[in-house]
């Protein structure tokens, strides 16, 4: 019985690639130094899977930024502004597309389906010239082969690539991106030919868009694409991989009828209904089924007995020699190796499996199906499953009763947002176009050292508080010098916006090295929600009160919202997600009320990940949005009208949920706008009325590029064309923690100057 891994984490067990990338970007190391780190990591990954007994090992899943950008490079689809002149795409062009440079902005970045991973959105149009411009897929296959590992090269499928793209600037919004299929397939044929010549026997096309709601025109594109590729693929075994949800019935029919395809991969963790399609709608005779039974998106140990039962039922349909045990999706969405967690509670640790352990689970299931079941391994797994179900640390009856009592109310504030804004303006006395930032300020090396030494008990609590207070004072002073209107304390006490809160809530566990890539070199360490959630003590009041005492200007209290804490954590899978979210909402509600009692007049409750959690299928949207928006309202339903509630959202397509955003009933929302070509503003141009305060981001903080005053003023004027002057705020796209002060100071200076410039223009026009 064969085994397969869809993809594997790239950063390394100790984030080796992250540090290599950042050192290269800072000019401290060379491209050769970076490639040496990458080569060593790839070799380690392939060896690990080979040693574990995995038969179908992926290659070309390693990336310096993301796999969609890699495909853009492969196709030579470089926007003109990067001045690429042809040939093999180098790192300068590649990273300019991802991060921008001193003269041009980066391409748009958005979420990869409903995950916290991001990708760079291709910009295409009728004049885009495609050419084979990156040989990465072939080079990595050869690299693995030279190490004695025969891999399955992985490519983003041609149809999904186009469906994940957008019309380039200046191209009609309705431009049919699928019309470019005939232009990109010749490049795919060249890649396929080189892989065949190099000795590849399998190739994997990731076509995750097949789990979306697709019309007949889009489904026909899959049939056309693979019919066109059929002769090029002759002699190869071809796997088309899907993940993240069920494959709809019509898409299943299309997929299983594709020309030249040998195997189909399905996510059977989040796509349980696909099981029914395989058994009831039939499965093509002689084809392989790659069964994704081991969860690639969470850290819980697989219930091996249940998965084995599922596989045995599939075996009866497709045949023993045609069933391959696989992960539900790439393991890049989970942490790397549980072995590195030497301080994690032993009971909780027994419930977990990171990427390295999931590889072993896949192999163990494959061997069990082949009659080589490791009885001791399965018995230990069953004991861990039983331990988790019966552990008293998982359940808190008081929390469950409080969450159950939420039913029957929609938890709205008592007055309308317009009445509240009037009351808040009397309290805060802000100018037209008030300026603010999103929360975090640059996290310096010294600041990280202080936090690290405090956690390691190398400095006292008194020394830690003194150092953090000094940093807050610097941030407050800088904002006053810049003349920003509503201040933040800069979050120097926080390494991560979710981890910080999870550390102070019950029902959470934390890892030392459970890092997961979010984009580029950016890694997050999601907390693990293993039990019922409550707030034993105030979490932010001390720091917010201290910061407010340093200034007469309004100081925002900074919280992470319940939906974002949920979506950016590894969540327990033994109860519905909405139940866990309501528990978190009640905990945050207590914190909001304590901040208000401490004299904080502006409180920001970030819901950066609300859109990210939206189910991939439209039929499931309403239920999710109902409990997600309700959870946010719970957090602030009982505060005074004079307390201003902000929320923040970033890097997603918000246009299709704008009415739910309005229903959150926040007083002010700051929202990503600049990197997505001001796509958000089109909602308001199309007639949506928004009465609360709103701050569409005026510059992209994920690029080192510093925007000019004129550029920011132009963005603000575009906003004023569709939004009322009295509700518009001026702010960056997101928090500033990933930037350097040398970038932040001039960018914020220009932002404030732009706001003042337009205020003067508005005043003179009266």
UniProtKB/TrEMBL annotation:
Q: Where is the active site?
A: 702 (proton donor)
What positions does the entry give for L-homocysteine binding? 438-440, 606
What is this protein's function?
Catalyzes the transfer of a methyl group from 5-methyltetrahydrofolate to homocysteine resulting in methionine formation.
Q: How is the cofactor bound?
A: Binds 2 Zn(2+) ions per subunit.
For binding 5-methyltetrahydropteroyltri-L-glutamate, which residues are annotated in this chain's numbering?
A: 18, 116, 522-523, 568
| Swiss-Prot/TrEMBL GO biological process terms | methylation
Part of which pathway?
Amino-acid biosynthesis; L-methionine biosynthesis via de novo pathway; L-methionine from L-homocysteine (MetE route): step 1/1
**Keywords annotated in UniProt:** Amino-acid biosynthesis, Metal-binding, Methionine biosynthesis, Methyltransferase, Transferase, Zinc
Which cofactor(s) does the record list?
Zn(2+)
Check the record and name the NCBIfam families matching this protein.
Answer: met_syn_B12ind (TIGR01371), PRK05222.1 (NF003556)
The Cobalamin-independent methionine synthase MetE C-terminal/archaeal domain covers: 433-756
- Report residues binding Zn(2+): 648, 650, 659, 663, 672, 734
Could you tell me the EC number(s) of this protein? 2.1.1.14
Q: Name one Pfam family in it.
A: Meth_synt_2
Q: Which family does it belong to?
A: Belongs to the vitamin-B12 independent methionine synthase family.
Stated name of the protein:
5-methyltetrahydropteroyltriglutamate--homocysteine S-methyltransferase
Instruction: State one molecular function term (GO).
Output: methionine synthase activity
Please give the catalytic activity noted in the UniProt record: 5-methyltetrahydropteroyltri-L-glutamate + L-homocysteine = tetrahydropteroyltri-L-glutamate + L-methionine
| Residues reported to bind L-methionine | 438-440, 491, 606
Q: Which residues form the Cobalamin-independent methionine synthase MetE N-terminal domain?
A: 3-317
